[in-house]
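Example 3.2
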Amino acid sequence: MSERKFKFVSPGVFLNEIDNSVLPREPEEIGPIVIGRTRHGPAMRPVRIESFAEFVDVFGAPHPGGDGTDVWRNGNYLTPLYAAYAAQAWLRNSSTINVVRLLGKEHTNKTAASEGSNGGQAGWATTNYLDGAKAESSNGGAYGMWVFPSEMSASLSAEAISALTGSGVLAAIWYVDQGSVGLAGTNTDGTSQSEAVKAGFIASDADGDFTLVITGSKSDVGVANEGATKIKFNFARGNKNYIRNVFNTNPTLGSSVSAKTSSYWLGETF
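Structure, written as tokens:
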């Protein structure tokens, strides 16, 4: 073939622009995981936290422990909240942490509860229960105090007093591991009652105070060993005899999950 008759055809060239103006997002920082107790917040699942301010908002501030003033109502701050301190230390110079808040856990070898024993279950329980046929030190359980209108007096008939009982409200509950509690003071007929009354009407004194008689065999603050102690109390917040100020409110001191250094603890008050 002559050169004049040869036609050179070049291969096709195609241009296609690749748009890299938007770069792919880099993987987010995972951060460490902290597992432990906090004041509050979602529990038993990881929560991603970006700053210490966010941590405090979700889980609460760290606590140094050693606070047993009112464990029943305020929560268990007997020991430090180490998880909160760990999160605070990390977030001081870094960002992103994953927090798993722990809750109480039942013992893996728990047994069926019997006669008040919790058998390894989470929470608090008294060892004994109320049984009039047993010795006083073998009694226990929950004792509720109900309050009624002040109109109840000896001048009222039995039918009138019976009608007023429907307006009573539950005011407090004591949990007793060994022994019992009752009220002493003045009966509705005006007579004096020095022994513990477990089922009856006892009036408050002129200052609005009641007197609780605690019997048991534990030696602790406010409770005599092998005897009975009388403690004055009322329901006026700020008063020196306010109910939550004068009684033990730490269940770990009076339940079967501890060394039982107390014979009772005060639970709910209303």
